[in-house]
Specification:
two-stranded antiparallel ribbon; alpha+beta; Extracellular Endonuclease, Chain A; elongated; seven-stranded mixed beta sheet
Length: 284
């Protein structure tokens, strides 16, 4: 082999080695530069969602507790107005007109159970109110209602100007002797100057005695538009007397026992002798 041929062969051999090295280098670089597949990490947020719901529920519960605390405080204030001279015994409704006041303003009737039938408690016709016609002596009779928030007034009460039977008002120590008492309180239905819903009643009868039960009903109705209370107030007269001896108040919440009472409240005023035949009075 001559020298020129050897050089040619050796040069070719070196070229092959060089090409082979480049190929390997390119292959190696391609491997390094290849993008790794994306890893998708999914977080389980179930616990966080549950925690958020529990926190929201706790806030609602705290608000309910605050509302109940306010109601309890209000009831405690109301109870301070009452002493042992108030409701203790129970009588039948048939005997109410024969009762004589002996120092107890409020008497429980029929073990505090209102006498409403299942039909009376039906909400099929929605909220309603009905007032009995005046009797032959122009005396107020019974007021009935299925109360709901929808019946409650949205405007302030206007002054009363009609005079029910037995209206012989006068000033006594602390103010006027009589009030024009609504059978169904204005705050419950908005009825105002309606002679079928007004009677002559002492301040003591109206406030605090009747108002105590009216407020109980009003608070329940305000809690929800789905709350209903069957309500009846009956003035009790003896014979042909023009001034009622008292009123029977019955209340029953529908689908619950939250509101439940049947009471008789005497129409009396401490320190005053009332003439029930006419409505006139004398200071004792």
């Amino acid at each position: 082999m001559n020298k020129r041929k050897f050089v040619t062969i050796f040069s070719s051999f070196l070229m092959l080695l060089t090409l082979s090295g480049c190929s390997n280098a390119q292959s190696s670089q391609g491997t390094v530069l290849a993008k790794a597949p994306k890893t998708v990490v999914k977080y389980n947020r179930t616990a966080k969602i549950k925690a958020t719901k529990i926190e929201a529920k706790n806030r609602k519960t705290e608000q309910k507790i605050k509302t109940l605390d306010k109601k309890i405080a209000k009831l405690r204030r109301q109870l301070k107005k009452y002493s042992s001279a108030h409701a203790v015994e129970s009588v039948s409704a048939a005997k109410l007109a024969t009762l004589t006041y002996t120092g107890k303003d409020i008497i429980i009737v029929n073990n505090n159970d209102p006498s409403f039938s299942k039909t009376d408690l039906s909400t099929a016709d929605g909220a309603w109110q009905r007032y009995g016609n005046l009797d032959g002596l122009n005396r107020v009779t019974t007021a009935n209602a299925l109360l709901n928030k929808s019946l409650m007034p949205n405007s302030p009460r206007e002054p009363l100007h009609v005079d029910p039977t037995g209206w012989h008002n006068k000033r006594i120590a602390g103010g006027w002797l009589y009030n024009r008492c609504h059978l169904i309180g204005f705050q419950l239905t908005g009825q105002n100057n309606n002679l079928k819903n007004l009677m002559t009643g002492t301040r003591q009868l109206n406030d605090p005695d009747m108002l105590r039960y009216e407020d109980e009903v009003a608070e329940y109705l305000k809690e929800s538009g789905n709350n209903y209370v069957r309500y009846r107030v009956t003035p009790v007269f003896r014979g042909d007397e023009l001034l009622a001896r008292g009123v029977e108040m019955e209340g029953q919440s529908v689908s619950s026992n939250t509101v439940h009472f049947n009471v008789y409240i005497f129409n009396v005023e401490n320190g005053v002798r009332l003439n029930y035949a006419t409505g006139t009075s004398q200071i004792k």
